[in-house]
Sequence to fold (284 residues):
Amino acid sequence: MRKKREFIEGAFYHVTSRTNDKIRIFENKLGRKIMLMILQDAKEKFQFRLANFCVMPTHIHLLIEPGEGTNLSSIMQWIKAKSARRWNFIHGSTDHVWGHRYFARVVKSPQEFDDVMGYIDQNPVKAGIVEKPADWKASGAYYRERNIYGVVDDSLTENKQYVKMLSPIPLVVEKFLPPRQLEHTKKYLGVYAESVERLCEIVSEIPKLDETKGAQEPPVYLHYFTKTADYFIYEYDGDDTFYGKARFKVYPADTEYKKFSLSNLKSNQFMELEWSWVPEVKGW
Fold:
């Protein structure tokens, strides 16, 4: 017979839940991102404090305190069901994502709380995935190290208003992304997205004005586009002026070097940005 779980009001619990047959569902970034988003959504739906967490390839750890009028079973049932549905929807499958039962142990002392915090932090280190706990993005250690709160709680005595973001979008990303794309990035990706990291890298590599004169090809560029035009940005003045080439579907032969306004490009409701575009051919 299954051992009956011990539930104590106002207590923290160390919760562990494994994937079905220990399948490595959270081994890639997409799987971990789904789990992070579900945790964020759960904090909006239920009252609880999350002191720490870690999403490993085959399981998750949570250090959680259910709020008044909220029970751990309801929270965990919702997290597992919601994440399974989202995973299957994205992958077009009907797989069993989770094992049938999660494990929960009440934390009975401050010393035990500290021990559990450390145990959860060390999971990816002991697995040989990273060298330091804060290097693992799908963990409370990562967010605590950077003073980013909203998933983990910065204080065990104060409930803060939780934000939808997993962490703030960098200003450079907000500056370059068209509004519709920025909204999508904030809602579904957050800074956890590899594409956001790549945009930050590319922007810092774009040459300043006149630095590409005489070059056979630019070292890196951005590609803004709509259904009727493409804008290849090769130089940037650091403020609002771009230089590059535009290719319009109705005037395909027009390849002169042009000046663009970043604000004007972003104002087009159909404009999108390919922020990982890197040239591969010469003769640009």
In short: The chain has eight helices and nine strands.
